[in-house]
Amino acid sequence: MKLILALQHGPSILVAHSYGGAVITEAGNDQSVVGLVYRGPHAGFRRERVGRRKALSERPRQIGRHKEMPDGFTYIDPAQFRELFAADLPGDKAAFMARAQVLNFAYNFSATITTAAWRTKPISLRLASQGSGRCN
C-alpha cells in the first residue's frame, strides 16, 4: 500500500471491504490519506491482531473453509465462496468471483495494527447485514 500511495499525486481516499478494512486502518496513517471508506469492514484497534475480530465472531461451520497453499497464500474454497462471501449475488457472478479471487498472504491475518487511522481521519462506514456480507 505504501508503494501505491507514493505513486499518487495529491490527496488519497482509501476504500476497503472485509479484511481490507484492517489494511486501510494502518495505511491510512500516511500523510497523503485524507479519508477512509469502510464497507462491511474488519477495521481494528491499536495493537489488535488483524484476524482477531473474525476469529471471535466466526461461526463454527465456517472454520476450515479457507485453504492455504504451500507458499503461505490463502484463498476461500470456491465451493464455499458464494455462501461465505457473495450470498446476495447470482450463482454465475459468485462463481466468477470465486475463480478470480486474489490470494492473501496468511501472515496478513496475524499482523498487528499499530495505529488506527480512523481515530484521526474522516471516515464513511457501511456495515454488512448479519450473515449476508451485503452492505446496506
Written description of the protein model:
With 136 residues, the protein is an alpha/beta fold. 25% of the residues lie in helices and 21% in strands. It is built from five helices and six strands; from the N terminus they run αβαβαββααββ. It has helices at residues 2-6, 20-27, 52-57, 81-85, 91-100; strands spanning 12-18, 33-41, 66-68, 73-76, 104-105, 123-126. It has a three-stranded parallel β-sheet, with helices on one face. It has a three-stranded antiparallel β-sheet with strand order 3-4-5, with no helix packed on it. Strand 1 (12-18), helix 2 (20-27) and strand 2 (33-41) form a beta-alpha-beta unit. The protein is globular and about 40 Å long.
List the helices and strands and how they pair.
Layout: H1 2-6, E1 12-18, H2 20-27, E2 33-41, H3 52-57, E3 66-68, E4 73-76, H4 81-85, H5 91-100, E5 104-105, E6 123-126
Total number of strands: 6
Q: What percent strand?
A: 15-25%
What value does the Rg take, in angstroms?
A: 16 Å
Give the biggest sheet: 3 strands, parallel
Order of helices and strands: HEHEHEEHHEE
Q: Which percent bin holds the helix content? A: 25-40%
- The total of helices stands at 5
Described by the principal axes of the CA atoms, the overall outline is globular
Q: What are the low-pLDDT stretches, counting only 5+ consecutive residues below 50?
A: 52-62, 131-136
Strand order of the largest sheet: 1-2-6
Class derived from helix and strand content: alpha/beta
The first-to-last residue Cα distance is: 27 Å
Q: Quick check: average pLDDT?
A: 79
